[in-house]
């Protein structure tokens, strides 16, 4: 959905987006949502891949977005991102069986993913009748 929003709003000139997810079901869904750009010289293309081993094979990306940092069981994906690359990172403090990297606060989250230049950092609280959690975000240059 992030790719769809970025391309359809057309506020930023983006020539190519690649989406990676370890779940093979995500590839077909992402390609379907972004079908318009798949057929326009592969401006968008989804792939099934393990992001923990992927970064060295990416070439020289301008930006890496990870909206589910809490799902990675190692920091390999982060460690493999070259210095100088812009990143958009999101995670949360929601207790869940799938969440293995757990941040207790925005500062804790930012300390896990240190940036040389921070363009934005913030948090958003979600309060539901039966549960609550906080979503953390930071944007900057590694």
List the keywords.
alpha/beta, two-stranded parallel sheet, 142 residues, four-stranded mixed sheet
In short:
This protein is an alpha/beta fold and 142 residues long. Helix content is 26%, strand content 30%.
Describe the fold and architecture:
With 142 residues, the chain is an alpha/beta fold. The protein has 2 domains: 1-49, no CATH class; 63-142. 26% of the residues lie in helices and 30% in strands. It contains 6 helices and 6 strands. The protein has helices spanning 2-9, 24-33, 35-38, 51-54, 76-79, 106-112, and strands spanning 17-21, 44-48, 63-66, 86-92, 117-127, 132-141. The protein has a 4-stranded mixed sheet with strand order 3-4-6-5, covered by helices on one side. It is globular, with a radius of gyration of 16 Å. It starts with a helix and ends with a strand. The model has no long low-confidence stretch (mean pLDDT 86).
Shape estimate? globular
**How are the strands of the largest sheet arranged?**
3-4-6-5
Number of domains: 2
Structural class by secondary-structure content: alpha/beta
Number of helices: 6
If you average the pLDDT, what whole number results?
86
Give helix % range.
25-40%
**Measured on Cα atoms, how large is the radius of gyration?**
16 Å
């Amino acid at each position: 959905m992030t790719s769809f929003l970025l391309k359809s709003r057309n506020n930023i000139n983006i020539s190519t987006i690649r989406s990676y997810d370890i779940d093979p079901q995500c590839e077909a869904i992402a390609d379907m949502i972004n079908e318009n750009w798949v057929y326009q010289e592969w401006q968008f293309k989804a792939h099934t891949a393990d992001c923990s081993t992927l970064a060295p094979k990416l070439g020289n990306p301008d930006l890496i977005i990870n909206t589910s940092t809490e799902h990675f069981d190692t920091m390999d994906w982060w460690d493999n991102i070259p210095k100088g690359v812009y990143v958009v990172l999101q995670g949360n403090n929601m207790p869940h069986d799938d969440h293995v990297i757990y941040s207790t606060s925005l500062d804790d989250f930012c300390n896990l993913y240190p940036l040389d230049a921070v363009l934005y950092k913030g948090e958003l609280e979600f309060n539901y009748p039966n549960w609550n959690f906080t979503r953390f975000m930071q944007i900057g240059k590694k």
